[in-house]
Amino acid sequence: MPKPKNQFVDIGNARFEDQEAVMREIIASDHCPFCQENLEKYHTQAIIKETEHWILTTNKWPYKNTRVHLLAILKIHVEHLYDIPPAAGAELIEIMGWAEKEYKALGGAFAMRFGDTDYSAGTISHLHAQFIVPDIAAEGYEPTRFKIGKNPRDF
Ligand SMILES: [Zn+2]
């Protein structure tokens, strides 16, 4: 049986020790790290672009083997795809297209987890989309992996 989880973050899906430390702080404060009033407390990365519905920024903990790893964070607290305002959906596609051009990405992925973090493997429940370009020219390059679903040992 899964352990009781924090409402806003899932420390079982953290990938780095310093990320876990920040998540412990968030759990102690019992608020959402991606809601606008809290975002700047935890997210120290530069804001690349702000639109009506989204904040585009870089991932503080990029995946291995990525040349570009951006996050588009929805400005309102939503955890399910069915709660995304349709206009925000259209705007997200525009932002991702903008990033593709801006970072001269010849290819990559645009991914968004949703809902229960046991299923999504997300660390933060507040919806955010990821824009990922692998660094295929880097020394020791290996394919970038995007996990969906928590590891059994982390339940
Ligand atoms: Zn939130």
List the helices and strands and how they pair.
Blueprint lengths: L16 H13 L6 H7 L4 E4 L3 E5 L7 E9 L11 H17 L6 E4 L4 H4 L7 E7 L21
Antiparallel strand pairs: 1-2, 2-3, 3-5, 4-5
This protein binds zinc ion.
Description:
The protein is α+β, with helices and mostly antiparallel strands and about 160 residues long. The chain has a single domain, classed as 2-Layer Sandwich (HIT family, subunit A), CATH 3.30.428. The protein contains 4 helices and 5 strands. It has a 5-stranded antiparallel beta sheet, with helices on one face. It is globular. About 25% of the residues are buried. Zinc ion binds near residues 32, 34, 35, 77 and 126.
Summarize the structure.
Helices cover 26% and strands 19% of the residues.
Defining traits:
single chain; 155 residues; alpha+beta; HIT family, subunit A; five-stranded antiparallel sheet; 4 helices; 5 strands; binds zinc ion
Rg calc: 15 Å
Give the SSE order as H and E letters: HHEEEHEHE
Number of helices: 4
CATH topology: HIT family, subunit A
Order of strands, widest sheet? 1-2-3-5-4
State the low-pLDDT regions, or none.
Answer: none
Instruction: Describe the main β-sheet briefly.
Output: 5 strands, antiparallel
Spell out which ligands are present: zinc ion
Distance separating the two termini: 8 Å
Helix content range: 25-40%
Work out the oligomeric state of the chains in this entry.
single chain
**Strands, count:** 5
CATH hierarchy: architecture:
2-Layer Sandwich
Structural class: alpha+beta
**Coarse morphology:** globular
Averaging pLDDT over every residue, what do you get?
Answer: 94
